Amino acid sequence: MKTVRQPWFHTQRIRDDLYCISEPHYTWQNRANLWLIKGRDSDLLIDTGLGVSSLKLYLADLLDKPLKVVASHVHFDHSGGCHEFEQVYIHQNEHHALCSGDQRLILSAPDIGAVPDRDFDAIPYQGFSANHYEVKACPHAQAIEGGDVIDLGDKAFEVMHLPGHSSGSIGLYNTSDQSFFSGDVVYDGELLDKLEDSIVEDYITSMERLLTLKTHEVRPGHYQSFDRRRLQLLIKKYIDEKKAPACPSES
Ligand SMILES: [Zn+2]
Ligand SMILES: [Zn+2]
Known about the structure:
Elements: E1 10-15, E2 18-22, E3 34-37, E4 43-46, H1 55-59, E5 67-70, H2 76-79, E6 87-91, H3 92-100, H4 103-106, E7 142-144, E8 149-151, E9 156-161, E10 170-174, E11 179-183, H5 200-210, E12 217-220, H6 228-243
Parallel strand pairs: 4-5, 5-6, 6-7, 11-12
Antiparallel strand pairs: 1-2, 2-3, 3-4, 8-9, 9-10, 10-11
The structure holds zinc ion (2 copies).
Residues 32, 75, 77-78, 184, 221-222 line the site of one zinc ion (ZN).
C-alpha cells in the first residue's frame, strides 16, 4: 500500500526568476524538470509534468502575472498538466496530438505500458493507479513553430524546432542571457530516438545545429543542468554513435 503524498511536487529555487519543479515520487529516470521563469510582464512555464496532481493549484503562490505555458513536446511526462492552463503552446507538428489527446503519440509507446505503477513510490491521491493513466486533451492549445518568440517583457525566448526525439520537439533559447531550455532534445542521460515518432536522421541534424549554439547554461527536460562544454560533448557522443559504421554482420 503506497502512501499519498501532497504536495506532489517539489520546487527548487535557482534564482529569483528561475525555478525547477519536479515530481519526486515518480521514477527518477523519467522524472521531468518543469521550468518556471518569471518575467516582467508575464511568466513562462516550460512543461507541466504527468498531470496526476494539480500543478496550477500548486504553483498559485508563485504566479502573479499572466502565465504562458509551453510544452517542449507532447510526451506525457511534459504535457500531462497542460489542460489545466489557459495559454498553452506546442509545436505545430504535435498540436493536433495535444488538442485531441492522442495517447499513441503522447505515451509514445502505449503497448509497452509507458507508465506502470512500479514507477511511483507514492501516490498523489487515494485510489490512484497508473493502470488508468491518460493525458487529458488540451483543445485550446495554440500552435507555434521554429523562429517564434515568447516575450516576457524583460526577456524573450526563441523557439528552436529540433525534431528527432519526436517530430515536434523544441528548445527555447533565452536571447537575453543565452541560457537554453532543451526539453528532451539533449540531456545528460540516455537519449531516446526509438519512440513512436522518433527519426534518427532528424535528430542528428538537430544536434548538429546545437553544436554551434552560443550558450553557457543548458536547462534540460531531465537530470542535471550543464554548461556548453558538456553540451558539445553530449552532442558529439550522440552523433559519433549514430554515424559509426555498422557491424559487418548486420549489413
Ligand atoms: Zn520525450
Ligand atoms: Zn521526457
